[in-house]
């Protein structure tokens, strides 16, 4: 089991493109620049200083997380095998392809090994570039090979420094988004500071480096920044085209680097759909965003050798349905309140029906079942019937896929982030409701110019998008803890924007009958500065203590296992075991696997359930037959799974297998009435007794405190 131990000694100013309002070109001290020349100089100075601060904060964040990673593991001092073991579970699997490309005789041979891979799944050749999002590993490995840096930088450092460098891109994108929304870079500074001080809830890059989300989320943040700019009013055609290009590139890179891209962009498409229906976004821009999402995903589909899971995604079906429905209902935004509400209800129903029909048709044509486990999980999670499905229960029992813990809010509140977020969310929601009602009840005879001016003053399109975005991703985070990183990072942006927003403070002060232009400007800058001072005073000492705390990677049992495999088994040996451990086996030893953690394939899920019978109540003959059917030479049993205590009864892996097999579970507690006792004892326990019925099939060849390795007999 991997542990960490203590080391032993000896080993605000205004942005240039702020949207027109009555406070245009006002300095933080409330003085107005004298003349147009003074205003331009002030804007140039503001953009220059704000840009320098953004880049500096991004680089500091990269250095910060890199230092935490080094201090936590003593990465520079541990052995290569220990470094690789530190890439846990699926992280190790992804990194193994980077290592494979680096070690290949040539780039062409490395690519051929990925396209025709027969070591990731035994007795089966698969296309890694089709099945997994590993183009980033391919690109990095090629870059490492062609750059003259091999003598100065090890491959592993080139890899991890790239990921830490992307954190700089992430923070800069959050900073710029907040700056664009509020009009002052002070807002961006506050957003970046909140991101850093809430690091536990905004990122996990320092201990899950190769995870797909750590590649994808920086590009998602860039995409949101580009959309925020695109939704600004009075853009020149050139500016609009450049913004669309930036959105497309960021969308493509986001889609290329994460297999769950389609679900995140579906939520984004829902946000655009809601705002378009309520006439809160320009329809032409929304249409372009739908098209960009589809084209970006289809381009990734081509690069992934026409991955059927992408073609059968709900996102493509939904976006196509919206475009078709809009063509059918051309007069959707005309008429009175009741008339428009009726049209909207019909529009929503039409889009929903078209989405389901198109998606079902595509999946039927392609015979697609790769993502069925996700829908089974969602069905069970939200109470649409209990299930005995092994895959769905495997997700349901993981803490990461459970509800967001309440202590998350106490941590976010300690930095004032959650309090400010709630304040801004309340006032902007009120503003959005007013604007939506006005838009729906407005007659089509109202002059467009008057309507747009009224709308812009109340709630700008970019602010409206940010509001719905944060609400939808907040719902996702509340329901699934693993997705909180999509919400909390945007929470930093949303809260800082609101705290520095003229519109929010104007609305607040008008509600309190205290509004004056000068008072709004004073509050707009003084409150964020006071918040920054508070955060610095309270959290700077803690950050310094964190950076001075030194630990060391320590997992001798896994190191011993990996070294034994490399020294005592042939290179062609096939290993069976848990998904998490086998990813490390592939990375550290290069041996062939029976199964692995990349779960987005139906055949692999069925194979994994069969392999996991080593922890179920099955006869030795049955288990031996299953393992040999996948070409297994060695099987690794883990005491931490066989005697698991981390989960409660009903969620232990052995319990999930028992229920799926129709057997009663171990221990005190209730069982469903139709479950029966098994005719056989638990395999992982009974094999250790060396009974003849087991030794005729399995021979123990290695053991330590954590692992037991058995070689399978090769009966004719």
Give an overview of the whole structure.
With 716 residues, this protein is mostly helical. It has 3 domains: 87-145, no CATH class; 163-444 and 455-538, no CATH class; 556-712, Rossmann fold (3-Layer(aba) Sandwich). Helices cover 64% and strands 4% of the residues. The chain is built from 33 helices and 7 strands. The strands form 2 sheets. Strands 4-3-5-7-6 form a 5-stranded mixed sheet. Strands 1-2 form a two-stranded antiparallel sheet. Strand 6 (698-703) and strand 7 (707-712) form a beta hairpin. Helix 7 packs across helix 8 (185-197), helix 13 (283-303) runs antiparallel to helix 15 and helix 26 packs across helix 27 (579-589). The chain is globular and about 90 Å long.
Question: What is the topological layout?
Answer:
Blueprint (H helix, E strand, L loop, with lengths): L2 E4 L28 H39 L6 H6 L4 H14 L3 H9 L12 H4 L3 H12 L8 H28 L2 H13 L1 H4 L9 H19 L6 H21 L3 H17 L5 H21 L4 H4 L2 H15 L8 H30 L5 H10 L8 H7 L10 H8 L2 H25 L6 H11 L2 H19 L4 H16 L2 H10 L5 H32 L2 E4 L1 H13 L5 E3 L2 H11 L2 E2 L8 H10 L8 H10 L4 E5 H4 L10 H8 L22 H4 L5 H4 L2 E6 L3 E6 L4
Pfam families: Dpy19 (PF10034)
Keywords: Glycosyltransferase, Membrane, Transferase, Transmembrane, Transmembrane helix
Subcellular location: Membrane
